[in-house]
Amino acid sequence: MLDDAKAADVQVENLLEINNIEVIYNHVILVLKGVSLNVPKGGITALLGGNGAGKTTTLKAISGLLASERGEVTKGTIKYRGDPIQHTDPAQTVKMGVVQVMEGRHCFEHLTIEENLLTGAYTRSEGKAAVAADLEMVYEYFPRLRERRKSQAGYTSGGEQQMCAVGRALMSRPETILLDEPSMGLAPQLVEQIFEIVKTINEKEGVTFLLAEQNTNVALRYSHYGYILESGRVVMDGPAADLRENQDVKEFYLGMSDEGRKSFRDVRSYRRRKRWLS
């Protein structure tokens, strides 16, 4: 769990600033409706919400991947280090230091784990020695990948593929990683392992994370600040420690109330109540 004092310390410089953006698919489907958020340098920021809330769309708006799905930012601004990037080519966004780890891992199944990792260094120009050093760094963070480095990615487990996807992002020497649903399809023990590694990378390498996650419980334990999305809008935000103790978040997202754990049937009532929107 993160130290609350550190959570306050990281609020220094906003690397990423999203101001009142709207995203439309196919010229008619409005997905994001006035979303605003900041991602401070050196922090872990969580973007929370259920399936269809707009988390992945937000990440793709930042990384420039909306166009491949006939989506576009039609209003508002996205700035990275003060420069507008909402219409920037995805390859240029990577060169700026922003890398997205896609939902569902998206490893190259026919390549080995090590070949997958090396594709992350494709845009770099420092030479083989620097790439080899970073490959060794990735193996230190993910010892399991070292063991499976000669295995085809398509024949590895979901957890190993998630590690490979994060390791591949690290190979590009990013300043910021956009991590989409890292817990999806993984056993609870593996989820904790992945988040522990994210925390370590954040602390030791200084990599900034914006992670989209449905697992609110684990995300709030490892992040410094959180935003909750519902139906394409930010409905609540605050320091992760505060959100963990917020009664509405406990009841609607963590399944807890003053009386203890609530049943799923009771938790579903938040769709009708949504006290913070009233």
Explain the overall architecture.
- By secondary structure, the chain is α/β, with parallel strands linked by helices.
- It has 13 helices and twelve strands.
- The strands form three sheets. Strands 6-7-8-3-9-10 form a six-stranded mixed sheet, with helices on both faces. It has a four-stranded antiparallel sheet with strand order 2-1-4-5, with helices on one face.
- Helix 4 runs parallel beside helix 7.
- The radius of gyration is 19 Å and the shape is globular.
- The two termini are 32 Å apart.
Sequence-ordered SSE layout with sheet pairings:
Layout: H1 4-9, E1 14-25, E2 29-40, E3 44-48, H2 55-63, E4 71-80, E5 83-84, H3 90-95, E6 98-101, H4 113-119, H5 128-141, H6 143-147, H7 158-170, E7 176-180, H8 188-205, E8 208-213, H9 216-222, E9 225-230, E10 233-239, H10 240-245, H11 247-252, E11 256-257, E12 260-261, H12 264-267, H13 270-273
Helix pairs in contact: 4-7
The geometry reads as globular
What helical percentage do the residues reach?
25-40%
Give me the Rg, rounded.
Answer: 19 Å
**What is the N-to-C order of secondary-structure elements (H for helix, E for strand)?**
HEEEHEEHEHHHHEHEHEEHHEEHH
Number of strands: 12
Jot down its keywords.
single chain; 278 residues; alpha/beta; six-stranded mixed β-sheet; four-stranded antiparallel β-sheet; 13 helices; 38% helix; globular
